[in-house]
Amino acid sequence: MGYAEFIQQAPYLGSFVILLAETGFLFGVVVPGGDSLLLALGGLAAAGHLELLPLLAATYAGAFLGQVLGFFWGRRLGPALERRARPEHLERARRFVRRFGAGAVLLAPFVPVARTLVPFLMGAAGVPWGRYVLWVALASLAWSGGLVLLGYALAKGVLKLVS
């Protein structure tokens, strides 16, 4: 079953699972698609095919929990990664975290591959959980809610033009 069929059969669960998989597993590095999915779902809500509030809740939950999961994958696998990675790569990653910190977490959801890798990197770098969860809660809300609402507004505008 592909994305489209999954969304047709169970739109809220489907959007949750797809965003969770994209942001919480390295799946998102290979098949990024969250931005277009969120915009399309907003359009479907504007056309009356989906309810907006449950859609916003499902997409936020998938984005947030996926990035939290990615963080914990980084925490868990970080030590093994450190043993295998080249020292210069580790130092570059640490500099990235020190330099961009909250900014990286806040912007990562808007960049397809970064939304999968940055949570992992933050976990592996030992960023404190309390600080990370606040950043990612805001980032997930801005990304998922912002793109669903943008898709909704654009579709409403198009529907108004054609009617």
TrEMBL record:
Keywords: Cell membrane, Membrane, Transmembrane, Transmembrane helix. Signal peptide: none annotated. The chain crosses the membrane at residues 12-32, 52-75, 96-114, 134-155. Pfam families: VTT_dom (PF09335). Coiled coil: none annotated. The keyword Transmembrane applies. It comes from the Bacteria. Residues 36-152 form the VTT domain. It is a multi-pass membrane protein. It is found in: Cell membrane. One of its GO terms (cellular component) is plasma membrane. The keyword Cell membrane applies. Belongs to the DedA family. This is SNARE associated Golgi protein-like protein.
